[in-house]
Amino acid sequence: MQLIEIYRSIQGESSFAGLPCTFVRLAGCNLRCTWCDSEYTFSGGRKMSIEEVEAEVKRLSPAGLVEITGGEPMLQERELVPLMECLLASGYELLLETSGERPLERVPRPVHKIVDVKCPDSGAGGTFRMENLATLGPADEVKFVIASRADYDFARDFTRQHELERRTGGVIFSPAFRKDAAVARDVSHCVVDPRDLAGWIVADGLNVRLGLQIHKFIWAPETKGV
Ligand code: SF4
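^ thats the input. predicted complex w/ iron/sulfur cluster below
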C-alpha cells in the first residue's frame, strides 16, 4: 500500500468528532476539489505492507477508533479491504472517509463509511457513484462540504431526493474552509458563514448536522498530522 502518514490525534468531523482516533492516510486521489486541504497526498508517500500498517496502528493504540482516509483510499481497494478486515478482527472501530466515486460494495459492513458527496463548487460535482447509495445504512454518514448557497441547495435536494436522513446514520453539512486561512483558526475563514448555514438548515426543516471541522479551530489549517 502507498501511505502518506499514520498518526494519532482527535477526530475532527462526523458524529465521532472529538474522540481520540488513529488516522491512516493513504496516498493518491483521482479528484481535484477546489477547497482540498490534502493536496500533499496526491503523490509520494511510502510503500508499506498490510502487516506493517496494522503493526503501526497497534503501536499507536491497542484499541479504539481508526480512520482510513486520504486522498481517496478506495483507489487502493485491493489492499485496503484486507487491511480493514484485519483491523476489525483486532477489535478496532473503523471509519472510512471516501468521496464515493469508487465502488463501495466490498467495504466490510461494520465499517462506518463517511461519504463526502461533492457539491458543484468543489469542481468535482457529479462524481458520486449513484450505485453506492444502495450500500449506505444506519452505520454510515453522508457529508456535504458547502461553499455557497448553490452548494447548500444541491445538498438539501440530494438529501431529500435520496431520503438520506432516514436511510443513513446521519447527514452532515459542513462549511468549506479557506485554503489560504494560514494560521487563522476562526469562523471568518469558513467560505460560508456557519450562521447562514444554520439558518438555512432550520428554515428548510432539515434533520441534518451542522458540522464544523474542529481540528481547523484547534490547529492552524495548514498543519499536517493533526
Ligand atoms: S476527494 Fe478529498 S483528497 Fe481528493 S481532491 Fe477532493 S478533498 Fe482532496
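Residues 1 and 79 are 6 Å apart (CA to CA).
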